[in-house]
Design a protein that fits this description.
The complex is a heterodimer of chains A (about 220) and B (about 575). With about 220 residues, chain A is of the alpha/beta class. Chain A contains 9 helices and 9 strands. Classes of the chains: A alpha/beta (about 220), B alpha+beta (about 575).
């Protein structure tokens, strides 16, 4: 499903020095595979997810999604790939405050090709246990409910790969496990590959495959060495 | 979910800010709509009033504009009068001969009265001298014959009636409250049209037009315009007493003779609503309305009925013509109408004759109007007025012929149009300022928007999409404001309608739109129809409709900057 080869990302600092962030020789996730990605803050987790999602272009290297080399596409095509093939759950939920729960989920399929399916949005909300909250705006919902809406939104376009960036970090402990279970179960049922970035050993421990960013990213590995 | 909905949600989300922006836009549009419609309706009304039914006004020499303002709009201070002969020159021949017959009767009666006074004196001073008596009677006979001879043959002399379809005399100078009293003939209601295309005439909400002579009310009947009746609270059957002269001047006084209201006009949307029409014959009989005569004739008060010969004009075989009007011989009814020698008019409204041969292109109609104008202005008529007692040194001393259409058009081009443009420019500037408030509104919320835009981008929206959504939001704000303003503008028109109507006689309602503009013609598509005379002039779109593309354009202009800002939003940075 996902193949990264020779990915590097560097930033130029104000003083002109080049700051390397990422150096990933090879990284691969199969279709339907669930991976926990763990690592300390500032080791490039979010940048890596942005590069996979096509939000950020790598300095060098290739990103293949479903066999398509996304990193060679123009921005518009990457937007299209993101709309069609990817789901994204953010640490801060990023629900749009002007839209109801249902509309937020519908937004998840708005930009994808031919996937405007109100019934699916409704059933996804049912699945995350929010069938009674469809018309509520995010501000009227609890943090746990908001993240569940975000999960439903990320799944709305039937993605091939779901990127979850510390989805439980801002959620109260009682709801954390529920969110993780929700994401994992749905991905399994719909054969969606999952990369879940997490700090939590407890969460990571539930995954069959746990990747440490320090092992993948040579910039971090060198810094540690 | 489509872009419209996304943009609409964004507007809703910023409720108060959006509302204020929309209101500001609405105010601007409201003013533009009000200016456009009021100007449009007023100008249409002005123009249609001047093109209705008559195309020449003969009025006193002086300001052409003042003659037009007086006779067409019943505005401005009253003008001087002109000799009645100008009316006789253009009125139809039946009326002319009937009035001339009356004149003969009156003059004869006058002479007879003077002679009998003289005879009385003679009888006293030279009782035995039957010869003197005989001489006096012979003189009377001679004088009578002289008058007859003078009047016989005048039925055609100096008549210009072939140039006119109709001529309506109008006398101004009296007031009813602040409204003008218009002395005229029943022909006014018969000939004056309110709409030149549909030939719509004045209609009565109650009663009827006044008659030249009525058994009960004699010559004293009146018809009121709708606003006059409403504001002064008159109804059919009431009596009105006109005020002589400008009510604001010290010399004004109320006439003792009243007029019975026999009819009230429906609202015409024209200045007629603000006028009180009285029978001209009655108007002449009011005190102070007699033309100051030269002393040669005005030795005595003019004779009243009992002095007139019984049987009226039939007494004078030489003047016998077919009785044209069926009004009862007035001399038997008391009081007699004012003889033409004592009459003058403020203006004569003339519709020039059209020739049947050349009717199609209308050249002949313009021709007659031109002939009338040059006859009046250049003194041709003066020579032909020789038959009358009227002897102006120059034709211009007395009268001029005015083309009301030209006057109104020039009034518009020189005065009203520039004002309209100033108003329009001002209101458009208000719209631009309101539009800038859209820019400010969107831009001030940009930091919040950047985050939302980043989220939408992360969900797969392209840069073009977020640019579109931002522009749409701007356009929707402008159009919402525009719609609200459009309705408000028309509500304002409807609300101000009565006031405008009472001040100008022009009525404006909610559904009066700004006049049409020949778009296709203006764009030069006339060439597609080489044979058509008027091309695409018929295809007109109300200028108000240009507000829609105008607003969209304005909204796009002010929306471009925030939209580009949205386009450039750095997703990764804005998400973190």
């Amino acid at each position: 499903m996902l193949l990264l080869t020779d990915i590097t990302k560097t930033y130029r600092q104000p003083n002109g020095e080049i700051l390397p962030i990422l150096d990933v020789p090879r990284y691969e996730v199969d279709a339907g595979e669930q991976v926990a990605l763990v690592g300390d803050s500032g080791c490039g987790k979010t940048t890596l997810l942005h590069i996979i999602a096509g939000i950020t272009q790598p300095t060098s290297g290739q990103v293949f999604l479903d066999g398509v080399e996304a990193s060679r596409c123009g921005e518009a095509a990457r937007d299209r790939i993101r709309a069609d093939k990817l789901g994204y759950v953010f640490q801060t939920f990023n629900l749009l405050p002007a839209f109801s729960a249902l509309e937020n989920v519908l937004l998840g399929m708005t930009f994808a090709r031919g996937k405007r399916d109100r019934a699916r949005a409704q059933s996804l909300l049912e699945r995350v246990g929010l069938q009674h909250r469809t018309t509520h705006k995010p501000a009227a919902m609890s943090v746990g409910e908001q993240q569940r809406v975000a999960v439903a939104r990320a799944l709305a376009n039937r993605p091939g790969l779901l990127l979850a960036d510390e989805p439980t970090a801002n959620v109260d402990p009682r709801n954390q496990q529920q969110i993780v279970d929700l994401i994992r179960t749905t991905c399994r049922e719909e054969n969606i590959a999952l990369i879940m970035v997490t700090h939590s050993q407890h969460v990571a421990g539930q995954f069959a495959r746990v990747d440490r960013l320090a092992d993948i990213n040579r910039v971090v590995a060198e810094a540690l060495a | 979910m489509n872009s419209f909905k996304i943009a609409w949600r964004s507007i809703q989300h910023r409720g108060l800010g959006s509302l204020l922006t929309i209101l500001s836009m609405a105010l601007g549009v409201m003013l533009v709509v009000a200016v456009l419609t009021i100007h449009g309706v007023v100008s249409q009304s002005f123009k249609s009033n001047s093109t209705l039914a008559y195309d020449v006004i003969i009025g006193s020499y002086g300001s052409r504009m003042q003659v037009t303002m007086n006779t067409v709009f019943y505005l401005s201070s009253p003008v001087e009068t002109i000799p009645y002969e100008y009316y006789l020159a253009f009125c139809d021949e039946d009326r002319r001969s009937s009035q001339l017959r009356h004149s003969v009767a009156w003059q004869t009666a006058l002479v007879r009265q003077q002679s009998s006074d003289a005879l009385d004196e003679l009888a006293i001073s030279a009782l035995p001298g039957g010869g003197m008596m005989h001489l006096a009677l012979a003189t009377l006979d001679h004088e009578k014959r002289r008058i007859e001879e003078q009047r016989i043959g005048l039925n055609s002399a100096g008549s210009k009636s072939y140039l006119a379809q109709f001529a309506i005399p109008v006398n101004l100078g009296d007031y009813l409250g602040t409204f003008r009293v218009v002395g005229t003939t029943p022909g006014f209601f018969e000939h004056i049209e309110l709409d030149i295309d549909t030939h719509r005439k004045m209609t009565f909400s109650s009663g009827r037009p006044f008659r030249e002579f009525d058994e009960t009310n004699q010559y004293f009947e009146a018809v009121l315009g709708s606003i006059v009746a409403r504001e002064l609270g008159y109804k059919v059957g009431d009596e009105i007493f006109p005020i002589h002269g400008d009510p604001n001047s010290s010399g004004a006084h109320t006439h003792e003779q009243g007029f019975r209201i026999v009819g009230i006009l429906d609202s015409t949307g024209a200045p007629h609503d603000r006028a009180a029409f009285v029978n001209l014959e009655g108007f002449y009989l009011l005190d102070g309305h007699v033309k100051p005569m030269d002393e040669r004739r005005m030795t005595d008060p003019f004779p009243v009925a009992e002095d007139m010969p019984e049987g009226g004009t039939a007494d004078f075989p030489g003047t016998e013509v077919e009785k044209a009007d069926d009004r009862p011989s007035p001399v038997l009814q008391a009081p007699a109408p004012l003889p033409i020698e004592l009459r003058e008019v403020t203006a004569v409204l003339v519709r020039s004759a059209e020739s049947e041969e050349e009717e199609e292109d209308g050249f002949q109609a313009i021709g007659s109007a031109y002939v009338i104008q040059s006859d009046v202005d250049e003194g041709v008529l003066k020579g032909e007025l020789e038959w009358s007692d009227y002897r102006p040194l120059r034709a211009q001393d007395a009268a001029q012929a005015v083309n009301p259409i030209m006057e109104v058009t020039s009034l518009f081009e020189n005065l009203v149009n520039p004002i309209r443009w100033v108003l329009l420019v001002l209101t458009i500037m208000i719209c631009v300022v309101s539009a800038i408030s859209i820019l400010v509104g969107i831009y001030s919320s940009m930091s919040q928007r950047r985050y939302e835009i980043a989220v939408i981008r992360a969900l797969g929206a392209s840069r073009g999409k977020v640019l579109m959504i931002t522009l749409l939001e701007s356009v929707m704000l402008a159009l919402l404001g525009g719609m609200l303003g459009w309705v408000a503008g028309h509500v304002l028109n409807a609300a101000a309608g009565p006031l405008i109507e009472s001040r100008t006689g022009v009525s404006i309602g909610f559904f009066d739109f700004a006049p049409g503009f020949p778009v296709l013609s203006w764009l030069g598509f006339d060439g597609l129809f080489p044979s058509g005379g008027n091309g695409l002039q018929w295809f007109r779109v109300s200028t108000e409709l240009f507000l829609i593309p105008g607003l969209i354009l304005l909204a796009i202009l002010v929306g471009v900057y925030p939209a580009i800002s949205a386009y450039r939003t750095d997703v990764a940075k804005s998400l973190s």
